[in-house]
């Protein structure tokens, strides 16, 4: 599967797309009011075709950071426990689909490939859960086989500021500047000669580089 094989069809109805764009604008406004939001590296996201985004995971805000910072409507994975009445409807309306928390799982693997085959852009948090300390955690099993099987550009993304704004132990968010940096894509050929462990290590390294770039000039604020 390559981006050229997969033109990006409109995979949302017009009302759903309008809902997504409205939510996108409202979140951008909210982040501006809560300390500011800056995105760098947007040129690394292909304008069309299947694309896999891989990001660090710090906070409940992260999905909203990705959705508001990247122009193309995203598909994203979310743990299955979130798919309850109302909240589940909202997540699905914004392009979310469920996975098992301990890894991407068989169904999540298949659904990710299906959405990529339709030419979509799918965002994953390969750590599997929010970081307890703000540092990038080991990646869960499944990301390397998925990346190898998909054969699409893998775009590493770094988020900064959301841990200070809304860490996992805090009930409500607080104002803090947020940053999103998008790194150069990993092309499928870079993974061809690598073992699953080496591929996962490469993906993690590129995510860390994006995180470091996102943190430039952003002063940390101790959580509490």
Automatic annotation (TrEMBL):
CDD domains listed in its UniProt record: LPLAT_AGPAT-like
Domain of life: Bacteria
GO MF annotations, alphabetized: 1-acylglycerol-3-phosphate O-acyltransferase activity
GO biological process: phosphatidic acid biosynthetic process
Residues of the Phospholipid/glycerol acyltransferase domain: 51-162
Pathway the protein contributes to: Lipid metabolism
Matches recorded under InterPro entries: Plipid/glycerol_acylTrfase
Pfam families for the chain: Acyltransferase
Keyword Acyltransferase attached: yes
Transmembrane segments: none
Coiled coil: none
Key words, A-Z: Acyltransferase, Transferase
PANTHER family, alphabetized: 1-ACYL-SN-GLYCEROL-3-PHOSPHATE ACYLTRANSFERASE
Name this protein carries in UniProt: 1-acyl-sn-glycerol-3-phosphate acyltransferase
